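Reply to dn_fold:

You asked what the input looked like. This is it:
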Amino acid sequence: MKMAEFRADLPALTGIRGVAAWFVVLFHVRIGASAQLPAWLIGIFAKGYLAVDLFFMLSGFVLWLNYSESLRSKGAASVPRFFGRRIARIWPLHAAILCATAAFALLLQLSGHGDPIHYPWSDLPLHLLLIQNWGFSNSLTWNDPAWSISCEFAARR
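and this is what came back:
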C-alpha cells in the first residue's frame, strides 16, 4: 500500500504545533510586555525558546507526511510545486505581519520613540524577500521570529 493511503488528519499534532508556536511568540513578546505582566509569567514566557525544537520537529514530520510520496514518485519534478505551495502558505502572513510592524515602527518614529536599531529601514527589503538571515545583516530585526523561515529557504536553495 502507498503511504498516501495511510494519511490521516492529525489534529493532535496540529494542536501541539499551535501551542509550541504560541510559546515561541510569547518568548519574543515577553521583552516588550515585561512592564505590564507579573515576573512569574515573564519567567514562563522566557522558556518559550524550548518550543522551537518541538515545533520544527513536528513541522518536519508533517511536511514529510504530506510530500514524501510525491518526492519519491516524481523526484525533482515535484520540487517547484512544493516550493510554490510553501511560499503561498507562508509569505502572505509574513508580509502582513511585516507591514503591521512597519506601521508600528513608523508610528514610533513619528512620536519620537522609534528604535532605529531594531527597525532599520534599509533592512526591510531583505525581510520582505525572506533573505534577512542569509548573512546580509548580523542582528534580528523587524519580524524577529521570521529568522527561521529565512533560514529554511536558505537551506533549500
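Residues 79-110 form the longest helix (32 residues).
Hope that clears it up.
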